[in-house]
Each structure stands twice: as structure tokens, then as C-alpha cells.
Design brief:
This protein has about 500 residues and is α+β, with helices and mostly antiparallel strands. Helices cover about 30% and strands about 30% of the residues. The chain contains ten helices and 18 strands. The strands form four sheets. It has a seven-stranded mixed beta barrel. Strands 12-11-13-10-14-18-15 form a seven-stranded mixed beta sheet. A hairpin with a 2-residue loop joins β11 and β12. It is elongated.
Length: about 500
């Protein structure tokens, strides 16, 4: 349970000044920070306003109610009016904004709530406005679930003008979220970003996922199979030991040294699940998903070092899932042929279906797919956020994302952008026979052009080999009998 929240003073003061000079009557956006279960505290790094939607409409607006305002006197030009109003919020658009921003955050950074800039009288106008905010908060929470299964709290920050005042409330979101879910919370500003410690990890992975025979229960698309593989690898990664700056992590004390801490993950010895999968009789092929992931995580100086290890592991898995989501999102948005690997229908690859949605059991030719690479952009006080670029995309796309999604200035110096992932994740689907018998010619593979089933050919070869073995054994037996008879006759004649 969050008992107190500390906001980055430098950043929040800048936001306060910007909002005060904007003459906006209302603004809504996301709260970026961290909720620490070890410290029972929340930390706010920044507030990111939600941009207008595709129709250039604001995500929230106030609708003035019809009421006689003659007795109120002249309205101030420096501040918006406080007339009775109702709030309209585009819940879906704010949730989508939260989903895309969450992709750009690294370990130890999360979307932890929403904020609203509105007058106190409007905020307390009716329960309808509060209900709108709670539904928005719930939508954001569902779009950006926190890894902790028991961590269901989010923050609602109200910034009030005339007078300027910050109010923080925590909300425990459930399926039936109500006003009783909100609780007041202590809020203050202080130094947050400068007290963070940086952890970095370059993680290499090589996942081999079996493709089984088609049946009513196991028909899977490429994206479904990858999600399942990433899910299982997350369980394996959870048990990995960590080496930080050359020392094995054995205690749970806070880290006291400065600088970037290098993290290496050591996976436990496990049985060869790939060999076990390939020994099954229903295996058709294999998905080879491999590459490297660069991960950053930021830790508060008072948090235990084990939290940094946990954040690194979660960031690795979230990065893989985000890349898959990007490919799927672009595939759904693309109305034409989705990828260069699309072939005629006889190859099992439909020309009007994106690669991520191909049914694995129907593939007849090798299919490859390059995943987006991860790049890192300087953010606040020496920290980094990230973005993902397709092989055909340039850094200009990255700059646009920074401006639109994070409401920050685009990096002017390309040298400050980190591109550490030399071997970006990639995917290859292979026939099982190409993997099990790598020296077979292409014509003896189901991915070849001859159309001959290699299982039948292999069966014929095996039968011929067995027949030769039997014939050899019989000849050897006959030869032994003849030699034995000759020796017996020779020894008898001598006696």
C-alpha cells in the first residue's frame, strides 16, 4: 500500500509553470514513475499530457452548463472560468496513449496513474466527473498492467489552480471501481531522479519452439506460438541468478556505489526442452527465435539491489513482448501484402495474410522475420527511455514518437542516441527434417520443390538398411559354420 508519494521537484515545477501560463481549463495525462512495494512509497518522475486523437480532438473537455452568471462579475483573463461544467473524457484514447508510452519505458519506470489539471470547483462539481476519472484510471491500469500480481494501486493527481495546489489520491482498482476506492495520500516534492542508480544488462537468448501436427486443439499462428514461448521463458528467467559488477548477488542490501552497474544473468541448468520436444512424434518443425536484448533499469537508492535484478528481468520480457506487439499492430493496419516472405497459396503462405497471423502447420517453406531493434533516447537527469525501429525505419521516426507520445523535445544530436543491439532479435521457421538431418538436400525436404515426403524417403532408407544388416548377419553365420566345420575336419584327420 502506498503511504506517501514524492514527485521530482525540478520537473513538476516546470509543468506547474507551463500549465499556469497555458490558460487551459482542463488537461489530462499520464503519471510516469514507480511504486515501490519495499518502501510503501510512490515516486513520480514526470507528467505526460495525452495528445489529441487522430481527428485532432482533445482527449478531455469541459461542457459548460447553462446557468445565469451575471452575478459572478467579470472573469479573470489569466485563469479559466469556474462555471459549473461537466467533464468529457476519451477513455479509450488515453488508455491507448498509456499502452504506447509503456513500451518506451525501461525497467523501474511505469505508467502509475493519471493527472488532471482543473479547478477545484469543477473537480468537486458532481459524482459524474469523479466516475469519469475513475473509469479512465481503470482503462489505463488495464492497458499497462504492473508485473506484481498483488499490486493494484494507481495514482490520481489533481492539480488545482487559483490557488495552485497538488492533491494525490491512491486508487485500488477492481472490476467494480467506485469513489470509495480512492484514498488521500501524502504528497511532497523532492529530489527523485538524481537519486536513481542505473543498471544495464545485455542478454542473449536462443529459443527453439516446436511446431506440432495440426489438430483442433493446437492450431496456432506464429504470433500465438511466440507469445507462449516468451511466457515460458519468463518463468525460466525468473529463476536466473545475477552477477552485478562481477559479484554474485547474494544479499538484499541497497547498492551504494555510483555509475552504471553491469548485470549478467545466469540461467539455471535445465533439461533440454528442445531435444525433448523434437523427440515427440507429432513435431513438424521448429521456430528459432534468437538475438540479444539490451536492458536498463533504475533503482531508488533506498531500494534493495534485488529489485534492480527483478526490474531487469521484467524489462527483458516486456521488450520481447513489445516488439511482437509492434509487428502485430502494423500487420493489422496494413491492408496490402504484409511481408516480402509471402508466397503463393500452395506454399502455405497466403498473400493476403500478415506473417504474424500465419498458421504454422500450413507452412511449406522456410519463413524468416526480423524484429524491431531497441534504441535508447536521453530523457531526464541522465536517464534513458527507449523506442523500437523496424529495419527500414530511421531515427526520424524515433524523434516523432518522442514529440507525440512523451511531449519532449526531439533529440537534436544523433550521437546521444544509444544503439547497443547489434544482433536484433529475429525469427526463422524451419522444417523439423532440416534441423534433424541438416545435410539433406533441399529436394528431400518438405520445403523443397520435389514434393516428396522426407518421412517416407527416410522410412525406405531405414528399411533398406535393416535388410542389409539382416543379410550380413546371415552371411556371417554361414561363414562361421563353414569355417568351424573345416577346422573340425582338419583337427580330426590329424588325430
Amino acid at each position: 500500500m502506498v503511504k506517501a508519494v514524492v514527485g521530482e521537484e525540478t520537473q513538476l515545477k516546470l509543468i506547474e509553470d507551463r500549465l499556469g501560463q497555458s490558460r487551459l481549463s482542463v488537461q489530462v495525462g499520464l503519471v510516469i514513475g514507480k511504486l515501490s512495494s519495499a518502501l510503501d512509497r510512490g515516486f513520480i518522475f514526470d507528467l505526460v499530457p495525452t495528445p489529441p486523437n487522430d481527428a485532432r480532438e482533445a482527449p478531455c473537455s469541459l461542457i459548460e452548463t447553462l446557468k445565469d452568471d451575471k452575478k459572478k462579475g467579470p472573469k479573470s483573463k489569466s485563469q479559466p472560468a469556474d462555471s459549473p461544467s461537466s467533464l468529457q473524457i476519451d477513455h479509450d484514447w488515453i488508455a491507448e496513449h498509456a499502452r504506447q508510452v509503456a513500451r518506451m519505458l525501461v525497467g523501474g519506470m511505469k505508467v502509475i496513474g493519471i493527472y488532471i489539471w482543473v479547478s477545484d470547483s469543477v473537480f468537486k462539481n458532481s459524482t459524474i466527473m469523479l466516475s469519469q476519472l475513475l473509469q479512465t484510471l481503470k482503462g489505463v491500469a488495464e492497458a499497462t498492467p504492473l508485473p506484481e500480481t498483488d499490486w493494484e494501486e494507481r495514482l490520481l493527481i489533481h492539480i488545482c489552480y487559483s490557488p495552485m495546489r497538488w492533491t494525490c489520491r491512491t486508487c485500488t482498482w477492481t472490476s467494480n471501481i467506485t469513489s470509495s476506492s480512492l484514498r488521500p495520500c501524502d504528497f511532497k516534492m523532492g529530489r527523485v531522479l538524481t537519486s536513481l542508480q542505473t543498471f544495464k544488462c545485455n542478454y542473449n537468448f536462443n529459443l527453439r519452439l516446436p511446431i506440432c501436427h495440426e489438430s483442433a486443439s493446437n492450431v496456432q499462428t506464429l504470433s500465438d506460438s511466440l507469445r507462449q514461448g516468451i511466457y515460458h521463458h519468463a518463468k525460466e528467467l525468473k529463476d536466473a541468478r545475477a552477477v552485478i559488477d562481477g559479484d554474485l548477488v547474494v544479499n538484499d542490501e541497497p547498492s551504494t556505489s555510483d555509475g552504471v552497474h553491469e548485470v549478467e544473468l545466469l540461467l539455471p541448468f535445465m533439461k533440454d526442452t528442445y531435444a525433448e520436444a523434437c523427440s515427440r512424434k507429432d513435431v513438424l518443425g521448429v521456430l528459432v527465435f534468437k538475438g540479444s536484448v539490451c536492458s536498463f533499469a533504475y533503482l531508488n537508492s533506498k531500494e534493495p539491489i534485488s529489485q534492480a535484478v527483478t526490474d531487469i528481468k521484467r524489462d527483458i520480457i516486456m521488450s520481447l513482448q513489445s516488439r511482437l506487439d509492434i509487428i502485430c499492430d502494423e500487420a493489422y493496419a496494413d491492408v496490402g501484402p504484409a511481408d516480402d516472405v509471402s508466397q503463393e497459396a500452395s506454399d502455405g503462405i497466403s498473400t493476403d495474410k500478415p506473417v504474424s497471423q500465419l498458421v504454422l502447420q500450413l507452412l511449406r517453406k522456410e519463413c524468416s522475420l526480423s524484429f524491431p531493434r531497441r534504441v535508447f533516447v536521453p530523457w531526464l537527469a541522465g536517464t534513458y527511455i527507449c523506442d523500437y525501429l523496424q529495419p527500414s525505419e530511421t531515427l526520424e521516426v524515433l524523434k516523432d514518437h518522442c514529440v507525440e507520445l512523451m511531449s519532449m523535445e526531439a533529440p537534436s544530436d544523433a550521437s546521444t542516441i544509444l544503439e547497443p543491439e547489434i544482433d536484433a532479435p529475429s525469427l526463422v521457421t524451419k522444417s523439423f527434417w532440416d534441423v534433424a538431418i541438416p545435410f539433406n538436400s533441399a529436394s528431400s525436404s518438405p520445403l523443397g520443390k520435389s514434393g516428396i515426403d522426407p518421412r517416407e524417403e527416410s522410412s525406405k532408407k531405414s528399411t533398406k538398411s535393416n535388410n542389409l544388416n539382416i543379410m550380413g548377419a546371415i552371411l556371417f553365420l554361414l561363414l562361421s559354420i563353414v569355417v568351424g566345420s573345416v577346422l573340425y575336419v582338419v583337427r580330426g584327420s590329424r588325430t
